[in-house]
Amino acid sequence: NKIDVRKNLDSHFHSDSWVCHREIVRQEGRRRDQEGWFESPYMSRVHLAFNWSHIPDYLTFDEHYKLAIYVRPSRCNKLECTSTGRRISEVENIPCLQPLGLPSWFIDSNTMRNNILNLTLLSLDDARFRVEVHIINGLALPYAEYFKETMTIFIDYPQRAKYLDNQSGKRIMSPLLNHEEKSINMVHMFGIRYDQGHSTLTRPPMNLPPRWKSFERGRMLIGLNTTLRKRPPKMKYAPKSDADNFWNNPYSSVDDAKQHTDTYLETFHGLIYDMSDGSHAYDLESLILPYLPYFSNCREFDSYIPLWAVVESATECNLPGVTKDFPSSWWRRNIPSIPHQDDVIAVGPFDFMRFYPVADWCERKIRCNYDENLSDIDMAPRWFEGDTGVALFSIIRDPINYN
């Protein structure tokens, strides 16, 4: 009897083990709709390089092929029509089935596509993205293979604002993207503060952040990168920013602003929550920007220059040239401009024998064009016309994080 019981138990254990290790297709099966997606956590900067130098000249962008970048989370409305062409009610798609709008320089007819093109995506929240090339003309279908394996992706994020070890520098990824409470690195950055008072002294910057419905296709800022070796991008004159409309509530009521803020996960808003009665008010007086305002027509960055991307580049940051103040025998030349984290040495209030810290030292040049039309006359002084000592923006001393 004992032998029979043992055989039955072994049989049950084997059966249970087989059931536990059996693949369930609806849980672990291959999902075509999840292939080709890349994670881009908050404040990541994604570099997309497209080597289309071998694409024939007679293939025209937006006529024979298109570039589409899809982002999640996102939500947008889609207009649908009946078979007879009659318009029916809008349908909300979650996630949005429309790609991000490409930069104006990229879609400009003067931009050569059979070249090496570089796009940058700056994540304002945890996101996933997918890149596709669509053949929209049947005559170009034989050239579809030319677009395969032509994209290179490099993802960077802030690393120098605050040093954290592997235990304390973690957070949970947004549940809108991950239901398994995935742990990712907690990044810190130095934010740029732009106040309403700044806009009363000088004309507001042309690269103020888009908001609400402008992010319905995904909370990412996209830009086209060009280097000095390439032809200068075509000058663009953006519409002037209206400070009054920007700082005021654009909706008819606070409730509408709250609804749209929750819908599009907006962060550049002025909603204030009153814990005493659970009501909301709208009072926007300042913004915390992840990029530098005003400088909106620059090589390598386009309209958005993250401060951390400028001062944390080990390849672009340099020490000052040899001068009387910084001779060739200067002690700092023995250390890279961006030293290793373990080599950083701070000077405290009681370090009487140490006078100079070992810290990041970044000197670099970024070429920019004026985005403003210099021939126009403006009532308010523009940022490069302001009086000496006028503050354009400020940088927060302490680094901030996702929370």
* Estimated share of beta-strand residues: 15-25%
Strand order of the largest sheet: 8-2-6-12
Major β-sheet annotation: 4 strands, antiparallel
Mean pLDDT: 83
Number of strands: 16
Which outline best applies?
globular
Percentage of residues in helical conformation: 10-25%
Distance between the amino and carboxyl termini = 63 Å
Order of helices and strands: HHEEEEEHEEEEEEHEHHEEEHE
Low-confidence stretches: 232-241
| Tally of separate helices | 7
Instruction: From the alpha carbons, calculate the radius of gyration and give it in angstroms.
Output: 27 Å
Polypeptide structure, described:
The strands form six sheets. Strands 8-2-6-12 form a four-stranded antiparallel beta sheet, with no helix packed on it. The chain has a three-stranded antiparallel beta sheet with strand order 1-7-3, with no helix packed on it. A three-stranded antiparallel beta sheet has the order 15-11-16. The chain is built from seven helices and 16 strands. Helices cover 14% and strands 19% of the residues. It is α+β, with helices and mostly antiparallel strands.
Strand and helix map with partners:
Layout lengths: L1 H20 L3 H4 L9 E3 L4 E7 L13 E8 L3 E3 L12 E3 L10 H4 L8 E8 L3 E9 L15 E6 L13 E3 L10 E3 L6 E4 H6 L18 E6 L17 H5 L6 H11 L6 E4 L4 E4 L3 E4 L17 H5 L82 E2 L8
Antiparallel strand pairs: 1-7, 2-6, 2-8, 3-7, 4-5, 6-12, 9-10, 11-15, 11-16, 13-14
